[in-house]
Amino acid sequence: MIPINNLLLFGLAALIMVLSPGPNMIYLISRSLSQGKSAGVISLLGVMCGFLFHILMVSFGLTAIFFAVPYAFALVKFMGVAYLLYLAFKTVKSDNKIFDADQNLKADKPLKLFNIGLLTNVLNPKMAVFYLSFFPQFIKPEHGSILSQSFQLGAIQILISFSVNLLIVISAAKMANWFSRKPIWLRVQKWFMASVLTGLAVKMALAKAK
Predict the structure, then answer these.
(1) DSSP character for 107?
(2) Close Cβ partners of 144 (under 8 Å, ≥ 6 residues apart)
(3) Minimal CA–CA distance to 197: which of 59, 76, 124, 91?
(4) 197 and 87 in contact (C-beta within 8 Å)?
(5) Cα–Cα distance between 158 and 55 in angstroms, integer?
(6) DSSP string covering 153-204, please?
(7) Is the dihedral of CA 148, 45, 33, 105 positive or negative?
(8) What is the number of H-type helices and E-type strands within the chain?
(9) Which residue stretches of 36-171 are H helix?
(10) Residues in CB range of 114: below 8 A, 6 or more apart
(11) Would you kindly state where each structural domain of the chain is located, as residue ranges?
(12) What does the DSSP 8-state code read for residue 140?
């Protein structure tokens, strides 16, 4: 069982990540504005299933790697450090047009809405790389099954992501208008997010396998 303080830290990090504007958020806002809250919720369910897919793949992959390769922890750790620093750099260099939501998406049936949301995540290899970079710093062999710990983290991430994105879907129009009127928030968010990612990279670099 992962210690509660580590779970709380992971939950905070997951919350910060989901609040960072990205393809999922802009798609959910666009779909909600163009086709209503119900369409946004269905799309959100697809996005969540995409998260579940990546978490399952990464969880089983981490378990196999840690047991098969003696120095896997160090390898994954430094790959993760490099990737988190890359994300921090990309965050700072990104533009501020993420909330230019498309309000003219054509109406689609529920199954198609779900599938689009699902594929938005499943076909994004960066999600798998991010989870592989993010999970190891909170997983320790001495805390029990690596697979069980991965599922714990995955469940927390999905719960937080679903809750925040559901609020976004429900208040899509208000959020889009608010962000369009306050572009300073996006600049602040970029640097704050980059700082968080850099901090996580440092934490991971200092972590030791026991």
Answers:
(1) P
(2) 1
(3) 91
(4) yes
(5) 9
(6) HHHHHHHHHHHHHHHHHHTHHHHHHHHHH-HHHHHHHHHHHHHHHHHHHHHH
(7) positive
(8) 9, 0
(9) 37-68, 72-93, 110-122, 125-134, 146-170
(10) 42, 43, 45, 46, 49
(11) 4-93+101-206
(12) -
8 A C-beta contact, residue 120 and residue 54: no
pLDDT digits (tens, 9 = 90+) for 13-44: 888 778 776 667 777 887 887 788 888 999 99
How far is it between the farthest Cα atoms of the chain? Answer: 54
Which pair of structure tokens corresponds to residue 148?
């069980």
Let me know: does 146 contact 77? Beta carbons within 8 Å. Answer: no
| Token couple for 68 | 């098969």
Strand, helix or coil for residue 34:
helix
**What does the pLDDT read at residue 165?**
92
CB atoms within 10 A of CB 172: 23
For 62-86, how does the pLDDT look when each residue is reduced to its tens digit (9 = 90+)? 656 655 665 666 666 677 677 778 7
Q: At what angle do helices 172-181 and 23-35 cross, to 10 degrees?
A: 120
Give the residue carrying structure tokens 């399952």.
56
122 φ/ψ angles, rounded to the nearest 5 degrees: -60, -40
Whole-number pLDDT of residue 152 = 92
Supply 47's token pair.
Answer: 């996005």
Tally Cβ neighbours within 10 Å of residue 148.
Answer: 15
Q: How far is CA 131 from CA 12, 72, 79, 128, in A?
A: 15, 16, 12, 5
Q: Do 190 and 103 contact (CB within 8 A), yes or no?
A: no
